[in-house]
Amino acid sequence: MITIALIVLLVLIGLSIPVGASLGLLGLSLDSLYSFLPLTQAVGEVTWATSNEFLLVAIPLFILLGEILLRSGLAEKMYGAMSLWLSWLPGGLMHANIGASTIFSATSGSSVATAATVGTVALPEIKKHNYNESLFLGSLAAGGTLGILIPPSINLVIYGVLTNTSVPRLYLAGLIPGFLAALLFSVAIIIACIIKPKWGGNRISASWGARFKSLIHLVPPMAIFILVVGSIYAGVATPTEAAALGVVGALILAFLNKRLSIKLLKDAFEGSMKATAMIMLIVIGAAFLNLVMSSIGLTDAITSAITSLGWSPMMMVLILVLFYLVLGCFMETLSMMITTIPIVAPVMIALGFDPVWLGIIIIIAVEVALITPPVGLNLFVIQSLRTSGSMNSVMVGSLPFVLMLLLLILLLTIFPQMALWLPEMFG
Q1: For residue 65, what is the enclosing H or E element?
Q2: How many CB atoms lie within 10 A of CB 346?
Q3: Which of the 8 DSSP states describes residue 270?
Q4: 203 membership: H or E segment, kind and range
Q5: pTM score, two decimals?
């Protein structure tokens, strides 16, 4: 049963059928082969129950928030401020790439929006300051991955819905690992530029006066972060309501920046609807597939097979990370999460792993998938922003950052309190 399910799924994905449709078709195939009851009659109920989840309303709102910020013109000023403060480090503006991505991640919740926004602003600097192109591109792709870990993360909302885990606790758990990931990315750049000083480009100097003056440009994104995340922990808003507050804040900032227009709203709404439709198709397809798998006993069979192996907790974490690394070579990250978490999470939680800690580990493993070929989404985003050059440059440049994310998983496995300290303190 497990073998047939895997073969059918790989064939459907190999035929370039959209993932949401592939999951639904796999559910229909397993239903016709193994189910005693016509589970297809439950499609309507599954679709309604899945779509009627209040927490999922946060997804289109967070996407809309990112879309508005993407078009509001705040990124250029924010990047300029980060370049003045971080360009003295070995690697120069590559640290600004990471710093700007970190701040934008704390407002948009999307890896694609983060990579696209910061990449658009930063790419012209490569030739202007003579940077190593591959490492510079890799820093942009890696910086974008922070969008799914640092709150408000859309992927953490998805994990919370799928595992019935508190989203506020997940947001707290993602803070320290998220900022530590940004620090490790900068360490990778420093090491690379100490070994090869020419990779760091021409040194940019700035006066302290100019640096302090630029801080005003960091206020808007931080205000959005405080508005969204602060309202959740102040107890005045749910994650969905906080996302709506964030959209209102983004509209105000776009207005103050003189970018608010009918065209901006049209483009933002259109982009949000496309992304939301894609996500919800995957969610509904996965929900139906999970119903079929549970009904025919496939989920229990997988759980029993894994638990009977008697692997140690450390071995299970290693297998989990390798599983996502391999799967990330073939599937888009959100599809991968929605398809696998209903199967993986119960097994890991049954083995004694904390669901909040597990969520952060899975998100970081998914981050790695964002920058590993051949289907690393952020690699394609950065490549699409270029006017020339091959995809290989982006792939090679991302490798040091892949190693840093794997190091972060190791640190979290050895020191789980890095993720659990804040949720336990405020929970």
Answers
A1: helix 58-71
A2: 16
A3: H
A4: none
A5: 0.82
